[in-house]
Write a structure and sequence with these properties.
This protein is α/β, with parallel strands linked by helices and 322 residues long. The protein is built from 15 helices and 6 strands. Helix 11 packs across helix 14 (262-284).
Length: 322
């Protein structure tokens, strides 16, 4: 039995709060965690990086003093961090939390992270258009044979099954590895268990969500996000790093490099965040078994609804809150 397979054994019921950016997951999650005595595992691919606080809307130090939050600030911005690494660290955190008799609440909006944690590597992720375009450009510039040689190095098992001229399958195999850090042959052969989870999805009418996105961007600017981006660049981090290609970071870097005016950078940041939220909802709608809740009533009311449903399911409660 593999070490990861052993990690899955004995995991008790998990609770999950998912949804698009700016819908209020963190505010709801903190309230729920306090009331059921849980610790939070963040499922956010940007929040894993140190020094990236405002732009990733991490819980504040005060909030983290109220509720422990795991898997934030676990990597440097130039450190590779894959979905496979997330799964490894998350499984460790789950065992640690549950060994101390506490419930686990997973909160986040990175669909790939949630998928590989809850379902393992049985279902390869959907295509990443940006990564696919990059690989296609490499194939045109360097030749398909170069990409095939790369595939032979990272996944000889898959390469042995793929013809050197089969561009579609070569690109797909490299894409899956680039997204997850796991060869596609492992995705196709692994048989991890599904983790037991009660999943809550937060949503709200699109006009309200888009207004919240715009307001949050303005708030981040007021909190000093531009200085945060300047600090990252002053430390020598390359703008081509995956961490710095995230929403907001790439937009303000373009401004700092003189490529666009500040008001235009902010406008594009808001636009791209709204588009990202729409893609997140498309992904999450494919996740089975999600209990969808309208979060328009606010964090307090939404948290009360979730806590009540957890209690009805026989969940743990430590007497905090209502």
């Amino acid at each position: 039995m593999s070490s990861e397979r052993r990690q899955e054994v004995g995991i008790r019921q998990l609770y999950v709060i998912l949804g698009p950016t700016a819908v209020g997951k963190t505010a709801v999650g903190l309230r729920v965690a306090e009331r059921i005595g849980a610790e939070i595992i963040s499922a956010d691919s940007a929040a894993v990086y140190r020094g990236m606080d405002i732009g990733t809307a991490k819980p504040t130090p005060e909030e983290r003093a109220r509720v422990p939050v795991h898997l934030i600030d676990v990597a440097e911005p130039d450190e590779p961090f894959t979905a496979a690494k997330f799964r490894e660290l998350a499984l460790q955190a789950i065992h640690d939390i549950q060994a101390r008799g506490k419930p686990v609440l997973i909160v986040g909006g990175t669909g790939l992270y949630l998928r590989v944690l809850l379902h393992g590597f049985r279902l390869a992720p959907p295509s990443d258009p940006e990564l696919r375009r990059y690989l296609q450009q490499q194939a045109q510039q360097q030749g398909l044979h170069t990409l095939y040689e790369r595939l032979k190095q990272i996944d000889p098992q898959a390469a042995a099954r793929i013809h050197p001229n089969d561009a579609m399958r070569i690109l797909r195999a490299l894409e899956v590895y680039g997204m997850t850090g796991k060869p596609i042959s492992e995705w196709q052969s692994r048989a991890e268990s599904e983790l037991p989870a009660l999943k809550f999805g937060l949503t709200m009418p699109r006009p309200l969500l888009y207004r919240r996105i715009n307001e949050r961007v303005d708030q981040m600017m007021a909190q000093g996000f531009l200085q945060e981006v300047q600090n990252l660049l002053s430390k020598g981090y390359n703008r081509e790093l995956p961490a710095l290609k995230g929403l907001g970071y790439r937009h303000l870097i373009a401004y700092l490099m003189g490529e666009v005016e500040l008001d235009e950078a902010v406008r594009l940041w808001k636009r791209d965040t709204r588009r990202f939220a729409k893609r997140q909802m498309t992904w999450f709608r494919r996740e089975p078994g999600v209990i969808w809740l309208d979060a328009s009533a606010g964090a307090e009311a939404t948290a009360q609804t979730i806590v009540q449903m957890i209690m009805e399911q026989g969940g743990q409660h430590n007497g905090k809150g209502d």
